[in-house]
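In response to the reviewer comment on reproducibility (Comment 2.3), we provide here a single inverse folding case reported in full, input and output, so that an independent group could reproduce the run without further information from us. The structure tokens appear first.
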């Protein structure tokens, strides 16, 4: 075994986005593409530590969502890490770790950080996407200061250090060596399952299934399947077959592993069918997202966050109440009303889980959520799909109410925030940038004007100052806010890999229970029309209609 220094040249655009470096798989398959990024990351980590041998005393967690190229990338990373003098790697068996499980392992074993290979909910395979992200010692996504430093390093890189050691048998639990680096292949599920056991009343949940409660969890052929099988069918003794699409496949079996009504249409159909189970849920490619359904009933992620906040005391981990809650800016304000009623703080952050990290670390919030099918709590520093599913299972067990009843009762108490997101995918990048400039100008010009029964009271581009470390994030989305609290928000996706994606978020509050049963798109029609006419979305995107509506 020898350590080689390979000459390399920078690649353009290795700047991590909302959630790590995410690109077409074909981009990652270019020789040295992954190698450069990993070397740059290790250089930056090394520089952040005092002393020459600093990495030698450190441990990183490594694992991924099992998509195409996962296992090859794992071997490459092991060899680069060993060549750079890292002390130890904890590797999920077969190279698998869901995003929340990676966070859980970093935290439970108190290690330096972790590398997660995932492009989350994006499709996999040669034609699909691949990604890599770094999580810090708190188990959460690296702060922008670190990802930016890595990017700067990728632009000046000249050499990659890599061992020519043979591949590690990543299917075999136990200790292996690459050069002087110890590789411990660990059970991918155990730490995470122990954490779930500590949060929930597994005895009560087991009792539900023993008494005939029925459920369908669609793991979308992704890594969440191994966790859902072990916990739901294993520990909670739900009937075999409760978890479907449970075996992680490199191409997700052709599915787009994004748990929303469009891509999880099969689950939605099952939940509307004559033999629908009591409860339905789906997870995404790396199991940090969740979708919650009752019989013929879809829960919007914003409502899910609000209901979980209102009912958190049903769950043992939150018996004593919540420190506070946080939501990303585009997420509906339904949770704000609950927080107000509970007398706890509610924070509004930019899109992306990394912005919740400081609030969680400083113990300012316990539960966080995003409209993009993400929810989580202080137990890890990522969103956590199966955690959300276990929360909803617990609420049903404790209250004896169905998903639909829980949500309808919630609306009666707090009012309903009608909510929808329209995505326009694959817009040419320049056109998208020009569109955002135009939307910002239009908002400023129309501020104070009357539109039908309401006035546009506030039009701005969301900027955030982190209350813990004072860091600023500007340009986080254009908001048009009306005097009745309804909102239209526009932002460009930071996770796409082709052209630009415009996301338009609509929200309208309805306090009157008699008017809480309209179809969502109908209830939001005024705002959808207004976004079209004021924003000239059709002309500027070249598209007649959004490509995805959730
Ligand atoms: C999307 C979601 C965002 C989420 C992120 C990672 O980012 O909108 O809420 O945190 O994926 O799962 P976007 O593509 O909008 O930048
Ligand atoms: Zn994900």
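Designed residues, in position order:
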């Amino acid at each position: 075994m020898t350590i080689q220094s390979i000459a390399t040249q920078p690649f353009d655009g290795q700047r991590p986005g909302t959630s790590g470096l995410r690109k077409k798989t074909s981009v990652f398959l270019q020789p040295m593409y992954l190698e450069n990024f990993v070397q740059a990351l290790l250089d930056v980590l090394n520089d952040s530590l005092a002393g020459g041998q600093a990495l030698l005393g450190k441990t990183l967690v490594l694992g991924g969502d099992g998509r195409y190229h996962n296992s090859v990338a794992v071997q490459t990373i092991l060899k680069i890490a060993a060549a750079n003098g890292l002390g130890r790697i904890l590797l999920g068996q077969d190279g698998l770790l869901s995003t929340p499980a990676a966070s859980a392992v970093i935290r439970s074993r108190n290690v330096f950080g972790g590398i997660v290979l995932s492009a989350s909910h994006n499709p996999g395979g040669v034609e699909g996407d691949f990604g890599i992200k770094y999580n810090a010692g708190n188990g959460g996504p690296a702060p922008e200061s670190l990802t930016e430093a890595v990017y700067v390093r990728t632009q000046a890189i000249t050499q990659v250090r890599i061992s020519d050691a043979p591949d590690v048998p990543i299917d075999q639990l136990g200790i292996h060596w690459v050069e002087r680096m110890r590789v411990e292949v660990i059970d991918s599920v155990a730490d995470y399952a122990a954490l779930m056991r500590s949060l929930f009343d597994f005895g009560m949940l087991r009792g539900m299934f023993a008494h005939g409660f029925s459920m369908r969890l669609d793991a979308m052929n992704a890594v969440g399947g191994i966790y859902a099988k072990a916990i739901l069918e294993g520990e909670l003794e739900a009937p075999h077959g409760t978890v479907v699409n449970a075996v992680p496949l490199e191409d997700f079996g052709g599915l787009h592993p994004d748990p929303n009504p469009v891509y999880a249409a099969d689950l939605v159909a099952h939940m509307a069918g004559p033999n629908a189970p009591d409860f339905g849920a789906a997870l995404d490619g790396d199991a940090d997202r969740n979708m919650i359904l009752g019989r013929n009933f879809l829960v919007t992620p914003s409502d899910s966050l609000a209901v979980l906040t209102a009912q958190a005391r049903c769950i043992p981990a939150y018996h004593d109440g919540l420190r506070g809650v946080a939501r990303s800016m585009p997420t509906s304000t339904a949770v704000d009303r609950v927080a107000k009623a509970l007398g706890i703080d509610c924070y509004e952050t930019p899109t992306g889980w990394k912005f919740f990290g400081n609030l969680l670390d400083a113990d300012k919030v316990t539960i966080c959520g995003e409209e993009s099918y993400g929810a989580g709590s202080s137990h890890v520093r990522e969103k956590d799909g199966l955690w959300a599913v276990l929360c909803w299972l617990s609420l049903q067990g404790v209250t004896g109410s169905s998903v639909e009843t829980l949500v309808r009762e919630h609306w009666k108490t707090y009012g309903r925030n009608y909510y929808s997101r329209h995505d326009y995918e694959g817009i040419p990048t320049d056109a998208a940038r020009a569109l955002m400039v135009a939307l910002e100008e239009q908002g400023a010009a129309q501020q104070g004007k009357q539109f039908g029964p309401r006035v546009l009271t506030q039009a701005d581009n969301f900027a955030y100052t982190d209350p813990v470390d004072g860091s600023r994030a500007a340009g986080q989305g254009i908001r048009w806010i009306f005097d009745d609290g309804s909102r239209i928000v526009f932002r460009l996706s930071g996770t796409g890999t082709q052209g630009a994606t415009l996301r338009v978020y609509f929200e309208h509050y309805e306090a009157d229970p008699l008017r809480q049963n309209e179809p969502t798109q109908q209830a939001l029609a005024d705002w959808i029309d207004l976004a079209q006419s004021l924003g000239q979305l059709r002309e500027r995107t070249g598209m007649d209609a959004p490509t995805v509506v959730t």
